[in-house]
Amino acid sequence: MATTTLTAETIGQTINENEIVLIDFWADWCGPCQRFAPVFEASSETHPDVVFGKVDTEAEQLLAAQLQISSIPTLMAFRDGVPVFRQAGALPGPVLEQVLSAVKGLDMDEVRAKIAEQAPQEA
Question: Which residues form the Thioredoxin domain (predicted)?
């Protein structure tokens, strides 16, 4: 599976309708982004069960601001609509594979329970 361009209009639906979504926030002028792009693309070919999305932070400045993207490249992973990973910087291929393995191995019931524990209690 190839990468998919995500926009403010498509990102929410993509995250909510797919089990695992990995998003690369990048820009044309960013050298590390350009070096990471082939690693991200190659990984998308070996993981057809994962949606690999790309957000051009120049074209989608409001979206990048809403998600507090302050450094690129930034990689975010969502599982069952829940953000489970976020890291700035280009990852080498083996590290990207470790991230994917970790995301696939998450016990989402446990993750949701931890999120519920951290949520402020309503009075």
Answer: 1-105
What pTM, to 2 d.p., does this model score? 0.92
CA 37, distance to chain mean position in Å, is 14
pLDDT of residue 1: 57
Q: What ranges do the domains of the chain cover? A: 4-118
What pLDDT, in 10s, does the model give residues 7-60? 999 999 999 999 999 999 999 999 999 999 999 999 999 999 999 999 999 999
Nearest in space to 36 (alpha carbons), one of 48, 45, 27: 27
CB atoms within 10 A of CB 14: 16
CATH superfamily of 4-118: Glutaredoxin (3.40.30.10)
22, 33, 90, 100: the active-site residue: 33
- Active-site annotation holder among 22, 30, 55, 103: 30
78/86 Cα distance (integer angstroms): 9
Q: Tell me the C-alpha distance between 110 and 116, whole Å.
A: 10
21 vs 11: CA distance, rounded Å: 10
